[in-house]
């Protein structure tokens, strides 16, 4: 039987995969092995012996966690960013990895940068956490931060725009 923490992590993972329309996913962590396939394909049972129906029932009965609403930032960013680029020719700083976006070094701390800040090449803009590692994302252009596209605490994909910067 899975403990509550693993179950919550698995729930967040499934929500992230659904929100980002990822069709197939494999994961192996300690004694847990999960293979998830969406789009009507039958999924292989995880090592714990659960099938997807059982896993869904378990996740539905688990204590609620903060919802992972990746669809809004991802969809909103892709729709809004091209329009902004056409108007102002903005440079997008994109995520080099899949992970969780954080605008500050720790909860309650001020953000690395705010809209309107002037940034230099190499200046830390945010952190993307991947597999419990905090990866500092640096600006690759000098200029003014015009827009923060990603939402703090939300998942981001490889190549997803995080900031729009009007380069000097």
Supply the key terms.
four-stranded antiparallel β-sheet, elongated, 168 residues, single chain, 10 strands, Acetyl-CoA carboxylase biotin carboxyl carrier protein
Describe the model.
This is Acetyl-CoA carboxylase biotin carboxyl carrier protein. There is one protein chain. This protein has 168 residues and is α+β, with helices and mostly antiparallel strands. Mean pLDDT is 74; it is low at 41-51 and 57-81. It starts with a helix and ends with a strand. The chain is 26% helix and 30% strand. The chain has helices at 4-19, 52-61, 71-88; strands spanning 24-29, 32-37, 91-94, 99-102, 118-119, 124-130, 133-138, 143-148, 155-156, 161-167. The strands form three sheets. A four-stranded antiparallel sheet has the order 3-10-8-5, with helices on one face. The protein has a four-stranded antiparallel sheet with strand order 7-6-4-9, with no helix packed on it.
Q: What can be said about this structure in brief?
A:
With 168 residues, the protein is of the alpha+beta class. Helices cover 26% and strands 30% of the residues. The protein is elongated, with a radius of gyration of 18 Å.
Low-confidence segments: 41-51, 57-81
- Please report the number of helical segments: 3
N-to-C SSE series? HEEHHEEEEEEEE
Quote the beta fraction. 25-35%
Helix content: 25-40%
Task: Describe the sheet with the most strands.
Answer: 4 strands, antiparallel
- Head-to-tail CA distance between termini: 56 Å
Helix/strand/pairing class, anyone? Answer: alpha+beta
Annotation, overall tally of beta strands: 10
**Rg calculated over all Cα atoms:** 18 Å
Anisotropy-based shape: elongated
Average pLDDT for all residues: 74
């Amino acid at each position: 039987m899975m403990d509550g923490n693993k179950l919550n992590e698995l729930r967040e993972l499934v929500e992230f995969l659904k929100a980002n329309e990822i069709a197939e996913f494999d994961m192996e962590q300690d004694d847990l092995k999960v293979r998830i396939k969406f789009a009507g394909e039958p999924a292989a049972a995880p090592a714990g012996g659960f099938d997807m129906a059982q896993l869904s029932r378990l996740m539905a009965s688990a204590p609620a966690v903060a919802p992972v609403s990746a669809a809004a930032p991802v969809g909103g960013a892709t729709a809004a960013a091209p329009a902004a680029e056409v108007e102002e020719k903005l440079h997008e700083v994109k995520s080099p990895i899949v992970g969780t976006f954080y605008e500050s070094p720790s909860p309650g701390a001020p953000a690395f940068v705010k809209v309107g800040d002037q940034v230099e090449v190499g200046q830390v803009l945010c952190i993307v956490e991947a597999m419990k590692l905090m990866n500092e994302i640096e600006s690759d252009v000098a200029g003014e931060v015009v827009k923060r596209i990603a939402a703090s605490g939300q998942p981001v994909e490889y190549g997803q725009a995080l900031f729009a910067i009007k380069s000097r």
